[in-house]
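User: Fold this; tokens only.

Assistant: Input:
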Amino acid sequence: MIFLEYISTNTIIIDLDPQSGPGPEQYNNMLSCPLRKGCGEMHRGQKGFTLIELLIVIIVLAVLTGIAIPTYRVVTSRARESAVENEMTNIAKALEMHQTDLQAYPLTDDYPDSIEDNDYMENIPEEDAWGNDYIYSSDGSSYSLESYGINCIDGGDDDIVITNGVLISDGAYENR
């Protein structure tokens, strides 16, 4: 409970320590605000933050934010790329099991139905973490599984490619 007291000097006293009750010795624990123009203005001898101190704090926070946001974006991009590589590795394992059992990889037109129908993998993801379709091509004796990577464009250093179970291109970041 906050105790308010109006004293004869046109000042409201707000008691911040409700256990002690009002008294002259407790005025150090109280805030006062004169009931006249200029309430809240800094006077000599009062403690507070200067404009320069506040500006320094704001600048430090801006610098820390400027460092944190790009770092966050890099970490998120690496996480997406790593997730895509893991998905593609799982698909490649299912393709290798298919090849081992049936002595052929699924043809381009039979993917992913052939893998799901033969129970090598359920719910094969059709899109990578960036929302682009995985590119699968096969002639039956070899295959290639590709994601266009971060920039979503074929070619460049960010593509992720698995050919015949081997990671050929590992994207923009070296995750392994």
